[in-house]
């Protein structure tokens, strides 16, 4: 585990989103980083496709990495 420096404006956006999504600030930042990474490595998938894929992986206990 490490420390990540985040610009103050982005931290405020994370704080607001975390309260709406009922996540901690760290959990919200981690969620955004994970979805961003999956979107970059799977540019043809929509946000909904990525979430659906992650839900299916969680249900089957499969790895959370997207198939390229």
Radius of gyration: 13 Å
Structural class: mainly alpha
The sequence of SSEs as H and E is: HHH
**What is the domain total for the residues?**
1
By DSSP, the count of extended strands is 0
The shape is: globular
Oligomer: single chain
Helix content: 55-70%
Strand-residue proportion:
under 5%
Largest sheet: none
Q: Please work out how many helical segments DSSP would assign.
A: 3
Mean pLDDT: 89
End-to-end separation in angstroms reads 27 Å
The low-pLDDT segments are none
Describe the protein in words.
It is a single chain. The protein has helices at 8-20, 25-41, 47-60. The chain is mainly alpha-helical. The two termini are 27 Å apart. 4% of the residues are buried. It is globular, with a radius of gyration of 13 Å. It has three helices and no strands. The chain has one domain.
Brief descriptors of the model:
3 helices, mainly alpha
What's this model, at a glance?
This protein has helices at about 10-20, 25-40, 45-60. It is mainly α and about 70 residues long. It has one domain.
